[in-house]
Amino acid sequence: MGRDPSTPPMSRTRKRDYLASKKTARNVNREGQRWTEDRAGMTLRLPIDLREAVTEEARVAGDLSKVILFALRHVERKDVTITQTRKAGLPLSKPQLLHVGAEARAVIRAWAEEEGVSVNSIVVSVLEEFFKRLKRSKALREELRLEIRARRGFLPS
């Protein structure tokens, strides 16, 4: 089970380039990157500390999207200070594909284009402002937990 002796051997450089291109083509998830109108998903990379704060509230798969939508409804656009995520050198978590819905995705993208920043920066900035408010307001925290439970549906016991 080796190389066919009738074919010439592949150079190391050519083989390395071939394998590198083959690997990147296979490991790329592009669903969240397509900005077509009917897509509901988007890929985000949150700072580690923010990801941990979100995880405290969102314990089940799918809850992260609910937290983001709740935050977008409860944070005024004028109150948000946009934070650059890439240029600030923040340690970011691994990319996550979230399904927030086509309408919410379009609103976030329009806001990002208007501000001249990435969608990730908008979501991170909104979540940072939201979690500042969440720490101060017990009523807001309870409202978020009730919203998550109401939208979660039935879980098997």
Write the layout of secondary structure elements.
Blueprint: H1 12-26, E1 41-44, H2 48-57, H3 63-74, E2 96-99, H4 102-115, H5 119-136, H6 138-152
Antiparallel strand pairs: 1-2
Helix pairs in contact: 3-5, 3-6, 4-5
Please, could you describe this protein's structure?
InterPro entries: Ribbon_hlx_hlx. The chain has 157 residues and is mainly alpha-helical. It has a single domain (39-151), classed as Arc Repressor Mutant (Orthogonal Bundle), CATH 1.10.1220. Helix content is 54%, strand content 5%. It has helices at 12-26, 48-57, 63-74, 102-115, 119-136, 138-152, and strands at residues 41-44, 96-99. A two-stranded antiparallel ribbon has the order 1-2. The radius of gyration is 21 Å and the shape is elongated. The protein starts with 11 loop residues before the first helix and ends in a 5-residue tail after the last helix.
